[in-house]
Design a protein that fits this description.
Layout: H1 10-19, H2 25-35, H3 50-59, E1 66-72, E2 78-83, E3 89-97, E4 100-104, E5 108-110, E6 125-128, H4 131-146, E7 152-157, H5 167-178, E8 190-194, H6 198-205, E9 212-216, H7 222-228, H8 237-251, E10 255-261, H9 269-279, E11 284-290, H10 304-316, E12 321-323, H11 337-347
Parallel strand pairs: 4-7, 7-8, 8-9, 9-10, 10-11, 11-12
Antiparallel strand pairs: 1-2, 2-3, 3-4, 5-6
């Protein structure tokens, strides 16, 4: 297969131009066609010489995202199931807020982390996405919004997969997204979420970006976290917390800790007390997430009043906590649910 043009950062395209005896300023023109004008083929790039357009067409491909299904929630959330060139499928979600539109992108086909409450892990990991396949999710969603004059203003890398196990592609995706000649998404409007891949947390701390970091913890101690998140056996809770302390010291940027509340499992007052003790001295924020019901799992939602009590305990102990606003609940917008249904129908 030819490489995807969306895989390339501006600097990499400049190097390609140089290697192919083309003026490097053509790279910025190409970037403008890709991310500002958002064309769908090289032949549309009319200020590039025909010979260069033909050469680009010979050597690169546009990412093909086939829209298998699209659902729109009554709250404005849009969920796509996209087919890839190799017959795999991925999900992308666009969420409308009163402060702008955000997109949740996927970085892997499937996931091997194995969180016991998540649909993304059903079927395991198939492969990593390329940077261009992640980029194409944003460009395709933006093309949809162009019709109504809307814009994607923020990105969360919280879809299927573990972005820090696809680190280089994720970082190239981020570099393309924030570039001033591209979509130019503000760095502080982007959040990357990890289940706690410790070496990559240290690496990310050295990247010198303003991009937000979120860590999925879902438990206040090793024993419970290992039951919910098998990745904890590779990277124990204390190692994750030590990496977080390094990140905070290096960057001075607040970390968000994501905590999915599961009825009767990790949502008792004693869990909130223990979590507060662990996080009390850290510059952080806790995002409490009422767990989504996944038919293949047996977990149930925490009762509403218990969610508020969990939050009250954290805040009483000076740990900032909010409850995630639910969106797209009527269209199975949680990670992996739509893909799981598609996989099941394909297997019949």
């Amino acid at each position: 297969m030819k490489p995807f043009i969306y895989d390339y950062t501006l600097e990499q395209i400049q190097q390609w131009m140089k290697d192919n005896s083309e003026p490097t300023f053509r790279a910025a023109q190409l970037f403008d066609w890709l991310y500002v004008k958002r064309v769908k083929g090289f032949e549309e790039m009319t200020n590039l010489p025909k010979q260069l357009r033909e050469k680009l067409d010979e050597q690169f491909a546009f990412v093909t995202l086939e829209e298998i299904t699209k659902f729109e929630s009554k709250d404005g959330t849009v969920k796509f199931l996209f087919g890839l060139h190799d017959n795999h499928a991925i999900e992308t979600v666009v969420m409308r807020h009163n402060y702008g539109n955000s997109i949740c992108v996927t970085t892997q086909v499937g996931c091997r982390i194995g969180c016991t409450f998540c649909a993304s892990t059903l079927g395991g990991l198939k492969r990593n996405l390329t940077a261009g396949e992640i980029v194409a999710q944003v460009v395709t969603a933006q093309q949809m919004l162009d019709a109504t004059g809307e814009r994607i203003s923020s990105i969360v890398i919280m879809g299927s997969g573990e972005p820090f196990e696809n680190y280089e592609a994720t970082m190239d995706f981020l570099r393309i997204m924030i570039h001033e000649k591209g979509l130019h998404i503000g760095q502080r409007h982007i959040t990357v979420s990890t289940s706690g891949i410790v070496p990559s947390i240290y690496k990310f701390a050295e990247e010198n970006t303003q991009i937000n970091l979120a860590i999925s913890i879902h438990a206040p101690n090793d024993m419970l976290r290992s039951k919910l998140m098998p990745v904890n056996r590779r990277f124990p809770f204390e190692e994750v917390m030590e990496a977080c302390r390094y990140y905070l010291a290096k960057t001075g940027r607040r970390i968000t800790f994501e905590y999915a509340l599961i009825g009767g499992v990790n949502d008792r007052p004693e869990h909130a007390e223990e979590l507060a003790d662990v996080l009390q001295d850290l510059l952080c924020h806790v995002n409490l997430i009422p767990v989504n019901h996944v038919p293949e799992r047996k977990y149930v939602r925490t009762p509403r009043e218990d969610i508020f009590e969990f939050q009250r305990i954290l805040e009483r102990k000076k740990v900032n906590a909010t409850i995630r606003r639910e969106q797209g609940h009527d269209i199975a917008a949680a990670c992996g649910q739509l893909r799981a249904k598609h996989m099941e129908s394909q297997a019949r």
